[in-house]
Amino acid sequence: MLALIQLLVEDMLRSIGLRDNLHELLEVVGWVEFMTLDKPVYKHLCWEFLSSLKVDWITPYQHRPVRIQFRFFNRFFEPNLTEFGRRLHLPHGGVWAVGHENFNVQEFWCEITYDMCTLVIDNHGFYVPYSADGSKATSICNPTLRYLHRLIVNTIFPRHESQGRARLSEVFLLWYILKDENFDTGAFISHQLLSQASSPKSPITCGGLITAITCAWGLEAQIRTITPLFLGGQLSLATCIQMEMFKM
After folding, report:
1. Which residue from 194, 199, 205 is spatially nearest to 233, judged by alpha carbons?
2. Nearest Cα to 151, choosing from 32, 39, 46, 244?
3. Of 41, 90, 95, 167, which residue is most buried, by most CB within 10 angstroms?
4. Burial of 176 (0-12, 13-18, 19+ CB in 10 A)
5. In the structure, what pLDDT confidence band is assigned to residue 171 with cuts at 50, 70 and 90?
6. So what's the pLDDT on residue 161?
Protein backbone atom coordinates (compact mmCIF):
# COMPACT_ATOMS: atom_id res chain seq x y z
CA MET A 1 0.00 0.00 0.00
CA LEU A 2 1.21 3.51 -0.82
CA ALA A 3 0.36 6.21 1.72
CA LEU A 4 0.04 9.97 1.31
CA ILE A 5 2.41 12.26 3.19
CA GLN A 6 1.98 15.99 3.89
CA LEU A 7 4.18 19.00 3.24
CA LEU A 8 4.18 22.55 4.56
CA VAL A 9 1.62 25.17 3.51
CA GLU A 10 3.26 28.59 3.16
CA ASP A 11 0.09 30.70 3.15
CA MET A 12 -1.40 28.95 6.17
CA LEU A 13 1.85 29.31 8.12
CA ARG A 14 1.98 33.00 7.28
CA SER A 15 -1.62 33.51 8.42
CA ILE A 16 -0.95 32.01 11.87
CA GLY A 17 2.42 33.73 12.29
CA LEU A 18 4.71 30.68 12.09
CA ARG A 19 6.24 31.05 8.64
CA ASP A 20 9.20 33.29 9.49
CA ASN A 21 10.25 31.29 12.55
CA LEU A 22 9.96 28.01 10.67
CA HIS A 23 11.92 29.30 7.69
CA GLU A 24 14.65 30.51 10.02
CA LEU A 25 15.09 26.97 11.32
CA LEU A 26 14.87 25.45 7.84
CA GLU A 27 17.52 27.84 6.56
CA VAL A 28 19.87 26.79 9.37
CA VAL A 29 19.92 23.22 8.04
CA GLY A 30 19.38 24.01 4.35
CA TRP A 31 15.93 22.40 4.14
CA VAL A 32 13.86 25.25 2.66
CA GLU A 33 13.76 23.88 -0.89
CA PHE A 34 13.53 20.24 0.15
CA MET A 35 10.54 20.79 2.43
CA THR A 36 8.55 22.31 -0.44
CA LEU A 37 9.07 19.37 -2.84
CA ASP A 38 5.40 18.63 -3.39
CA LYS A 39 5.62 15.68 -5.78
CA PRO A 40 3.01 13.19 -7.01
CA VAL A 41 3.43 9.51 -6.19
CA TYR A 42 3.99 6.87 -8.87
CA LYS A 43 3.52 3.20 -8.09
CA HIS A 44 5.98 2.14 -10.82
CA LEU A 45 8.76 4.37 -9.48
CA CYS A 46 8.27 3.19 -5.90
CA TRP A 47 8.47 -0.52 -6.72
CA GLU A 48 11.46 -0.16 -9.03
CA PHE A 49 13.44 2.11 -6.71
CA LEU A 50 12.84 0.20 -3.48
CA SER A 51 13.44 -3.22 -5.03
CA SER A 52 16.84 -2.11 -6.33
CA LEU A 53 18.03 0.11 -3.45
CA LYS A 54 21.38 -0.68 -1.85
CA VAL A 55 23.63 1.49 0.33
CA ASP A 56 27.25 0.59 0.99
CA TRP A 57 27.93 1.90 4.49
CA ILE A 58 31.20 -0.04 4.88
CA THR A 59 33.31 1.82 2.36
CA PRO A 60 34.05 4.92 4.53
CA TYR A 61 36.18 2.74 6.76
CA GLN A 62 38.05 1.67 3.64
CA HIS A 63 38.61 5.32 2.68
CA ARG A 64 36.04 5.23 -0.12
CA PRO A 65 32.84 7.30 -0.27
CA VAL A 66 29.48 5.78 0.64
CA ARG A 67 27.64 4.75 -2.51
CA ILE A 68 23.90 4.45 -3.07
CA GLN A 69 22.57 2.16 -5.80
CA PHE A 70 19.07 2.31 -7.30
CA ARG A 71 17.21 1.88 -10.57
CA PHE A 72 14.71 4.03 -12.51
CA PHE A 73 13.21 3.08 -15.87
CA ASN A 74 15.59 0.12 -16.14
CA ARG A 75 18.64 2.37 -15.70
CA PHE A 76 21.00 1.87 -12.78
CA PHE A 77 22.46 4.81 -10.85
CA GLU A 78 25.22 4.73 -8.25
CA PRO A 79 25.90 8.18 -6.77
CA ASN A 80 28.00 8.70 -3.69
CA LEU A 81 26.37 10.16 -0.60
CA THR A 82 27.62 13.68 -1.32
CA GLU A 83 26.14 13.72 -4.83
CA PHE A 84 22.90 12.24 -3.54
CA GLY A 85 22.48 15.13 -1.09
CA ARG A 86 23.64 17.75 -3.58
CA ARG A 87 21.11 16.71 -6.21
CA LEU A 88 18.33 16.95 -3.64
CA HIS A 89 19.66 20.37 -2.57
CA LEU A 90 20.48 19.08 0.90
CA PRO A 91 23.52 19.90 3.03
CA HIS A 92 26.06 17.12 3.37
CA GLY A 93 28.76 16.34 5.90
CA GLY A 94 28.42 15.80 9.62
CA VAL A 95 26.97 12.85 11.51
CA TRP A 96 25.12 10.04 9.72
CA ALA A 97 23.17 8.50 12.57
CA VAL A 98 21.74 9.23 16.02
CA GLY A 99 24.46 9.92 18.53
CA HIS A 100 26.52 12.80 19.91
CA GLU A 101 28.56 13.11 23.09
CA ASN A 102 26.53 16.15 24.16
CA PHE A 103 23.10 14.79 23.25
CA ASN A 104 21.05 13.74 26.27
CA VAL A 105 17.52 12.94 25.14
CA GLN A 106 16.04 13.14 28.64
CA GLU A 107 17.47 16.60 29.31
CA PHE A 108 16.60 17.93 25.87
CA TRP A 109 13.04 16.60 26.03
CA CYS A 110 12.56 18.43 29.33
CA GLU A 111 13.81 21.63 27.70
CA ILE A 112 11.28 21.62 24.87
CA THR A 113 8.16 20.10 26.43
CA TYR A 114 5.29 21.51 28.48
CA ASP A 115 5.74 19.77 31.78
CA MET A 116 9.21 18.86 33.00
CA CYS A 117 7.61 16.64 35.66
CA THR A 118 5.57 14.52 33.25
CA LEU A 119 7.02 11.02 33.28
CA VAL A 120 6.45 8.02 31.02
CA ILE A 121 7.56 4.41 31.34
CA ASP A 122 10.45 3.35 29.12
CA ASN A 123 11.19 -0.12 27.71
CA HIS A 124 12.89 -1.13 30.96
CA GLY A 125 9.96 -0.17 33.18
CA PHE A 126 11.56 2.99 34.56
CA TYR A 127 9.82 6.37 34.81
CA VAL A 128 11.63 8.88 32.60
CA PRO A 129 10.82 12.25 30.97
CA TYR A 130 11.17 10.77 27.48
CA SER A 131 10.33 7.39 26.00
CA ALA A 132 10.34 6.58 22.29
CA ASP A 133 7.17 4.55 22.75
CA GLY A 134 5.26 6.92 25.00
CA SER A 135 6.30 10.54 24.41
CA LYS A 136 4.01 12.63 22.22
CA ALA A 137 5.00 15.49 19.95
CA THR A 138 1.98 17.45 21.22
CA SER A 139 3.99 17.94 24.44
CA ILE A 140 6.48 20.17 22.61
CA CYS A 141 5.95 23.74 23.83
CA ASN A 142 6.92 25.74 20.78
CA PRO A 143 4.35 25.46 17.94
CA THR A 144 7.08 26.02 15.34
CA LEU A 145 9.04 23.06 16.68
CA ARG A 146 5.87 21.01 16.81
CA TYR A 147 5.17 21.79 13.16
CA LEU A 148 8.80 21.09 12.26
CA HIS A 149 8.55 17.69 13.92
CA ARG A 150 5.50 16.87 11.80
CA LEU A 151 7.43 17.95 8.69
CA ILE A 152 10.28 15.62 9.65
CA VAL A 153 7.94 12.64 9.98
CA ASN A 154 6.53 13.44 6.54
CA THR A 155 9.83 14.04 4.72
CA ILE A 156 13.04 12.81 6.38
CA PHE A 157 11.40 9.93 8.28
CA PRO A 158 8.04 9.53 6.51
CA ARG A 159 5.62 7.17 8.17
CA HIS A 160 1.90 6.55 7.99
CA GLU A 161 1.13 5.54 11.57
CA SER A 162 1.66 7.24 14.94
CA GLN A 163 2.89 10.55 13.54
CA GLY A 164 2.11 12.17 16.87
CA ARG A 165 4.74 10.07 18.61
CA ALA A 166 8.23 11.57 18.93
CA ARG A 167 10.80 8.95 17.96
CA LEU A 168 14.40 9.18 19.08
CA SER A 169 15.79 9.93 15.61
CA GLU A 170 13.32 12.81 15.20
CA VAL A 171 14.12 14.30 18.62
CA PHE A 172 17.81 13.97 17.75
CA LEU A 173 17.36 16.01 14.56
CA LEU A 174 15.45 18.70 16.48
CA TRP A 175 18.37 18.89 18.93
CA TYR A 176 20.87 19.18 16.08
CA ILE A 177 18.87 21.92 14.39
CA LEU A 178 18.54 23.99 17.57
CA LYS A 179 22.21 23.50 18.42
CA ASP A 180 23.20 24.39 14.85
CA GLU A 181 25.28 21.22 14.54
CA ASN A 182 26.17 19.59 11.21
CA PHE A 183 24.46 16.40 10.12
CA ASP A 184 24.12 14.68 6.75
CA THR A 185 20.44 14.79 5.81
CA GLY A 186 21.00 12.52 2.82
CA ALA A 187 22.40 9.84 5.11
CA PHE A 188 19.36 9.96 7.39
CA ILE A 189 17.09 9.78 4.34
CA SER A 190 19.07 6.81 3.01
CA HIS A 191 18.61 4.97 6.31
CA GLN A 192 14.87 5.62 6.14
CA LEU A 193 14.62 4.48 2.51
CA LEU A 194 16.47 1.28 3.35
CA SER A 195 14.09 0.68 6.24
CA GLN A 196 11.16 1.16 3.89
CA ALA A 197 12.68 -1.21 1.32
CA SER A 198 13.16 -3.92 3.95
CA SER A 199 9.54 -3.69 5.20
CA PRO A 200 7.44 -4.89 2.25
CA LYS A 201 4.28 -5.24 4.35
CA SER A 202 4.39 -1.65 5.63
CA PRO A 203 2.70 1.21 3.75
CA ILE A 204 5.08 2.98 1.38
CA THR A 205 5.30 6.55 2.69
CA CYS A 206 8.29 7.81 0.71
CA GLY A 207 6.58 7.96 -2.70
CA GLY A 208 6.89 11.72 -3.10
CA LEU A 209 10.53 11.58 -2.05
CA ILE A 210 11.21 8.86 -4.63
CA THR A 211 9.64 11.07 -7.31
CA ALA A 212 11.89 13.94 -6.19
CA ILE A 213 14.94 11.66 -6.53
CA THR A 214 13.80 10.66 -10.02
CA CYS A 215 13.53 14.32 -11.02
CA ALA A 216 16.92 15.08 -9.46
CA TRP A 217 18.44 12.67 -11.98
CA GLY A 218 16.79 14.44 -14.90
CA LEU A 219 14.11 11.87 -15.72
CA GLU A 220 11.12 14.21 -15.97
CA ALA A 221 10.45 13.21 -19.60
CA GLN A 222 10.16 9.54 -18.62
CA ILE A 223 7.94 10.41 -15.66
CA ARG A 224 5.45 12.06 -18.01
CA THR A 225 4.88 8.70 -19.69
CA ILE A 226 3.36 7.13 -16.55
CA THR A 227 0.27 7.97 -14.49
CA PRO A 228 0.53 9.12 -10.87
CA LEU A 229 -1.30 7.21 -8.18
CA PHE A 230 -2.09 10.41 -6.27
CA LEU A 231 -0.77 13.92 -5.77
CA GLY A 232 1.05 15.30 -2.73
CA GLY A 233 -0.67 16.40 0.46
CA GLN A 234 -0.34 19.39 2.75
CA LEU A 235 0.05 20.04 6.47
CA SER A 236 -3.18 22.00 6.51
CA LEU A 237 -4.99 24.04 9.14
CA ALA A 238 -7.03 20.98 10.11
CA THR A 239 -3.82 19.05 10.75
CA CYS A 240 -2.47 21.87 12.92
CA ILE A 241 -5.62 21.82 15.03
CA GLN A 242 -5.30 18.07 15.39
CA MET A 243 -1.70 18.61 16.53
CA GLU A 244 -3.10 20.95 19.24
CA MET A 245 -0.95 23.77 17.88
CA PHE A 246 -3.82 26.05 18.77
CA LYS A 247 -7.53 25.71 19.54
CA MET A 248 -10.46 27.02 17.56
Report:
1. 205
2. 32
3. 41
4. buried
5. very high
6. 62
